[in-house]
Design brief:
Layout lengths: L6 E5 L4 H12 L3 E6 L2 H13 L4 E5 L5 H15 L4 E4 L14 H29 L2 E6 L12 H20 L5 E8 L20 H13 L4 E4 L1 H10 L4 H9 L4
The chain binds NADP nicotinamide-adenine-dinucleotide phosphate (NAP).
NADP nicotinamide-adenine-dinucleotide phosphate binds next to α1 and α4.
Length: about 250
C-alpha cells in the first residue's frame, strides 16, 4: 500500500550488491522499488522481500535509456509512493587492453555506469526538492579514484559518477537531501567472478552490504572500503606522476 513505509529505489537490484541492499533495506522498513533488465531475477528478489513481510515492486528497465528510467521511476512512485532513497547501483565491468581500445564499448560503459545514475537522479530530484527531503546514494568504486591498467572506460565511468554526486552533495547541502558516495574495492559478486575467484582484499557480499546499509542509515557523505585498498587509492592522487605510474602498473586485478 502506497505511503505506509519510506520508499527506496534500487537500480541493478537483480543481483550482487543491489540485490543484497534491496533485501536489507526492506528488512530495515523500506518499501523497495527494484529496477534492472532481468525481470525474472527481480521477481525472485520481490518474492524474497514479500516472504519476509516486506513490500516490493518490479520495474524492468535499461538504465542507459533515459525514457525507460523516467517511466520506471514514475511507475514505482505510483505504486509505492514518492521515493525517499535512491541507490544508483546498476553497473557493468569493462576490461579494455590498449590493443582493443573501443569507443563503442566506452560509450556503453558510460551510458550504463554514469548516465544510468544521472537518469535516475533527473527523474527523482524534482520531487525530492519540492518535499525538501531525500537521499541519493551512488555505488561508485575505488576504481574511480585513479586510472588503473586495462580499465580506462570503467575507471572513467566511476570517476565521472563520483564528481557528479560530489557536486550534488554541495548543491543539496541545505535542501534536506543527503548524498552518499560508496566506493568499494573488490566485492564477491558475478562482476568479480563469483565463487572461487581470488582478488586482492576481496570482501564477501554480506559484510559489504552490511557496511553500505549502515553508511546509508547514518547518511554518511562517503564510504570507501576495505581500508588496505581505500587508503592507497586515496593517497595515489597526491603521488608524483612517475611514482603513481610505478605503483599503479603493479596492481593486480
Ligand atoms: N563487485 C565489485 O567488486 C564492485 C566493486 C566496486 C564497485 N562495484 C559496483 O557495484 C555495482 C553493482 O555491481 P555488482 O558487483 O553487484 O555486479 P552484478 O552482480 O553484476 O550486478 C550488476 C547489476 O547491475 C544491473 N545492470 C547492469 N546493466 C544494467 C542496465 N543497462 N540497466 C539496468 N540494470 C543494469 C544488473 O542487472 P541486469 O543485468 O538484470 O540488468 C545487476 O543487477 C556496479 O555499479 C559496480 O560497478 C562493484
Amino acid at each position: 500500500m502506497a505511503g505506509e513505509r519510506p520508499v527506496a529505489l534500487v537500480t541493478g537490484a537483480s543481483s550482487g550488491i543491489g540485490r543484497g541492499l534491496a533485501v536489507r533495506l526492506a528488512r530495515d522498513g523500506y518499501a523497495v522499488g527494484l529496477l534492472a533488465r532481468r525481470a525474472g531475477r527481480l521477481r525472485e528478489v520481490a518474492a524474497e522481500v514479500e516472504e519476509r513481510g516486506g513490500t516490493a515492486s518490479v520495474h524492468r528497465c535499461d538504465v542507459s535509456e533515459r525514457e525507460q528510467v523516467l517511466h520506471a521511476v514514475e511507475s514505482c512512485s505510483a505504486e509505492l509512493g514518492p521515493v525517499d532513497l535512491l541507490v544508483a547501483n546498476a553497473g557493468i565491468g569493462s576490461h579494455m587492453p590498449v590493443e582493443g581500445l573501443n569507443g563503442d564499448e566506452t560509450e556503453l560503459v558510460m551510458r550504463i555506469n554514469f548516465l544510468g545514475a544521472v537518469h535516475a537522479v533527473e527523474a527523482l530530484l524534482p520531487t525530492m526538492l519540492s518535499r525538501g527531503s531525500g537521499h541519493l546514494v551512488a555505488v561508485a568504486s575505488l576504481a574511480g579514484y585513479c586510472g588503473l591498467p586495462r580499465r580506462p572506460a570503467y575507471c572513467a565511468s566511476k570517476s565521472a559518477m563520483m564528481s557528479f554526486f560530489e557536486s550534488l552533495r554541495l548543491d543539496l547541502r541545505h535542501r534536506g537531501i543527503a548524498v552518499t558516495i560508496v566506493s568499494p574495492g573488490f566485492v564477491r559478486t558475478a562482476m568479480t567472478g563469483g565463487e572461487g575467484s581470488v582478488r586482492p582484499f576481496m570482501v564477501e557480499l554480506d559484510p559489504a552490504v552490511d557496511r553500505i546499509a549502515r553508511a546509508i542509515g547514518a547518511r554518511r557523505r562517503s564510504l570507501a572500503f576495505p581500508w588496505p585498498i581505500a587508503l592507497p587509492a586515496t593517497l595515489a592522487r597526491s603521488l608524483p606522476p612517475a611514482l603513481f605510474d610505478f605503483v599503479a602498473r603493479r596492481i593486480r586485478h
